[in-house]
Design a protein that fits this description.
By secondary structure, this protein is an all-beta fold. The strands form two sheets. Strands 2, 4, 5, 6, 9, 10 and 11 form a seven-stranded mixed beta sheet that branches. The protein has a four-stranded antiparallel beta sheet with strand order 1-3-8-7, with no helix packed on it.
């Protein structure tokens, strides 16, 4: 029932800001007690957790990206966003949005299909 869909530019130039939107249907992003995450997979590498925003609007980030990443939400449109500034080619990846839940354990139960983002001049 819950569906997530990533959207945004597929090509970003170095030093610019990457901006992606996740549109959620089938459930509210402010419904207890879920969080909404951004995860990416660089070419030939594993999944990398970038950050999430909780149901009540608190954002958390991977420490290595904390200075560049911003996750925010628009509850009226049931969307949340990722902005990643000062991108380099190493930020090239398939970017996913996913729903997170769990208190003692963590599970990402619903995922978007992913969107390819390439950083290149």
């Amino acid at each position: 029932q819950v569906q997530l869909q990533e959207s945004g530019p597929g090509l970003v130039k170095p030093s610019e800001t990457l901006s992606l939107t996740c549109t959620v249907s089938g459930g509210p992003i402010n419904g207890v007690y879920y969080s909404w995450a951004w995860i990416r997979r660089p070419p030939g590498k594993g999944l990398e957790w970038l950050g999430h925003i909780t149901w009540d609007g608190h954002s958390r980030y991977d420490p290595s990206l904390r200075s560049r990443a911003t996750i925010s939400r628009d509850t009226g449109n049931n969307q949340y966003t990722l902005q990643l500034s000062s991108v380099t080619p190493e930020d090239t990846a398939v970017y996913y949005c996913a729903r997170r839940y769990g208190h003692d354990g963590v599970l990402y139960d619903y995922w978007g299909q992913g969107t390819q983002v390439t950083v290149s001049s």
